[in-house]
Amino acid sequence: MELPHLDQTDQDIIKLLHENGRMSYAKIGELLNLSRVAIQKRVESLIENEIIENFTIRLNATKLGKVVSAFFEVEVEPRFVQQVGDSLSADPNVISIYQMTGPSTLHMHALLKDDAALEQFLFQHIYTLEGVVSVTTQVVIKRFKQGTGLEL
């Protein structure tokens, strides 16, 4: 993807940081034939202009004991969407949650320890929330790609 408001150097910097967020400015400069200071200034500008929102890491959920990856479509009475969304967002098992088209559908991804934890999450965390009408659950059996946000 090419972004017209970013020059090629900024796009190259973003691609390198996306591949390895720990890559030093000196290494990026070496790869792009620029000084460390020039790279640092460009990255600072990308941060100031909110092109780069933050730097993060991706953890291996399975190695940390979260072997069940599940997606949920949570139908909610329209007047409870914000309340249910806020409540589910606060749960540490929830990785992401979005309000989808249709006034009252929440799409959610959660990582859980095992099938018993999935059952507990459904019946003690989701179904007990006021306004939840129904829940459809799909468990991931194979991951082909996992994103970390927008890629250039």
Write the topology of this structure:
Blueprint: H1 8-19, H2 25-32, H3 36-48, E1 68-76, H4 81-89, E2 94-100, E3 105-112, H5 115-126, E4 132-139
Antiparallel strand pairs: 1-3, 1-4, 2-3
Helix pairs in contact: 2-3
Provide the CATH topology of the largest domain: Alpha-Beta Plaits
Name of the CATH architecture of the largest domain: 2-Layer Sandwich
Radius of gyration: 20 Å
Major sheet attributes: 4 strands, antiparallel
CATH homologous superfamily title of the largest domain: Lrp/AsnC effector binding domain/regulation of amino acid metabolism (RAM) domain
- Mean pLDDT equals 91
What is the helical fraction, as a range of percent?
A: 25-40%
Query: How many strand segments?
Result: 4
Distance between the termini: 5 Å
Strand content: 15-25%
Number of domains: 2
CATH top level of the largest domain is Alpha Beta
Query: In one word, what is the shape?
Result: elongated
Strand order, sheet with most strands: 2-3-1-4
Number of helices: 5
Structural category: alpha+beta
Please mark out the parts with pLDDT under 50 across 5 or more consecutive residues, or reply none.
Answer: none
Order of helices and strands: HHHEHEEHE
Protein name: Lrp/AsnC family transcriptional regulator
Keywords: DNA-binding, Transcription, Transcription regulation
Domain HTH asnC-type: 6-67
